[in-house]
Amino acid sequence: MIKKISPLKKQLVKFTLIGLLAVSIDLLFYFILLHMLPEKLLQVVSNEAVSKSISFMCGMTVTYFLNKFWTWKKKDRSGKRVFKFAVLYGIALLINVGSNSALLYVLYQYRNLVDLPFKYFIAFVGASGLSASVSFMGQKFWVFKTSNAILVH
Q1: Shortest CA distance to 128 belongs to which of 30, 13, 10?
Q2: Interatomic CA distance for residues 25 and 74, integer angstroms
Q3: Among 12, 23, 132, which residue's Cα sits nearest to residue 72?
Q4: Is 36 in contact with 50 (CB distance < 8 Å)?
Q5: Backbone conformation region of residue 55, classed left if phi is above 0, alpha if psi is from -120 to 50, else beta
Q6: Nearest to 61 by CA among 30, 81, 36, 86
Q7: d(CA 3, CA 61)
Q8: Do 18 and 63 form a contact (C-beta atoms < 8 A)?
Q9: Which of 3, 35, 109, 127 has the fewest CB within 10 Å, making it most exposed?
Q10: How far apart are CA 113 and CA 119, in angstroms?
């Protein structure tokens, strides 16, 4: 007997696959920009924050189009949806960049963590996981919401 996969599980799998692609793009641009931009690009904002912001937006673009058509199966052109997505990802960006900076601070300031390798990667993964959780919930229940969205299955 073949067990049917619930719509929520299908959405989570698709969202995760697209997310992995978007995170790969984000990571690639993050490390490229970290090495290309001057350490103190602006007097108030660090190279890490600028690099993370730009790289996050590259991944966000991939996420919008692939999730819109594949995960949520929306074919229409909705300016309202684009606006909602931009608001959601603005919030996710703040969460992503803020948690990335906070994790880097912790990893560099605490004696037990100073010698830990791959600090930028660890911060990147933590920030990406937190913002991805917010993004999935926001897309499912606000941006691409359908009248028959069901949580249980």
Answers
A1: 30
A2: 23
A3: 12
A4: no
A5: alpha
A6: 86
A7: 34
A8: yes
A9: 3
A10: 9
The torsion region of residue 53 among left (phi > 0), alpha (psi -120 to 50) and beta comes to alpha
Which among 22, 151, 4 is positioned nearest to 93, based on CA atoms?
Answer: 22
Calpha distance 42→83 (Å, rounded): 29
Is 139 in contact with 91 (CB distance < 8 Å)? no
What's the mean pLDDT in 27-45? 82
Are 52 and 30 contacting, i.e. CB atoms less than 8 angstroms apart?
yes
Please state, in angstroms and rounded to a whole number, the distance separating the CA atoms of residues 143 and 108.
Answer: 37
Q: 3-16, pLDDT tens digit by residue?
A: 788 888 999 899 99
- The per-residue pLDDT for range 47-80, each reduced to its tens digit, is 888 888 899 889 988 999 999 999 988 888 888 9
The tokens of 82 are what? 């684009």
For residue 55, give both structure tokens: 């790289």
Query: With bands split at pLDDT 50, 70 and 90, how would you rate the model's confidence at 88?
Result: very high
